[in-house]
């Protein structure tokens, strides 16, 4: 029985992780698209990154709550999500700025800085969403 519970927990975690990855991939496309559009329109990298983060985050919240973690909404969950993503916002902006400062000049520098900041933010968010915000 204990072994069955452990297998079910692993299976549930794996399913959650796969759904989170799909949501994350889609949200990253939204994020990068808004970032690229902002840069194309002449916004600074920081303003474009901030706007793209908000667009990607809004997408991620809606899809993660309903599909990846399959939990009902509520003010507490929304507040926890906002607090987590507010923290993540400063984390990704700092990582993006650091990456821009240390990466050599190239045609891929801005996109690579975005990808590095996005990757770190994504890992942080999965752990905190699972353990804190969308915990059943």
From TrEMBL:
Record keywords, A-Z: Membrane, Transmembrane, Transmembrane helix
GO CC annotations on file: plasma membrane
One GO biological process term: polysaccharide biosynthetic process
Segments crossing the lipid bilayer: 17-37, 43-63, 83-104, 110-133
InterPro entries: GtrA_CellWall_Glycosyl (IPR051401), GtrA_DPMS_TM (IPR007267)
Compartment(s): Membrane
Main location, first listed in the record: membrane
Ranges for domain GtrA/DPMS transmembrane: 19-134
Pfam families in alphabetical order: GtrA_DPMS_TM (PF04138)
Membrane topology, record value: Multi-pass membrane protein
Record-stated family: Belongs to the GtrA family.
Protein name (database record): Putative flippase GtrA (Transmembrane translocase of bactoprenol-linked glucose)
UniProt organism field: Blastococcus aurantiacus
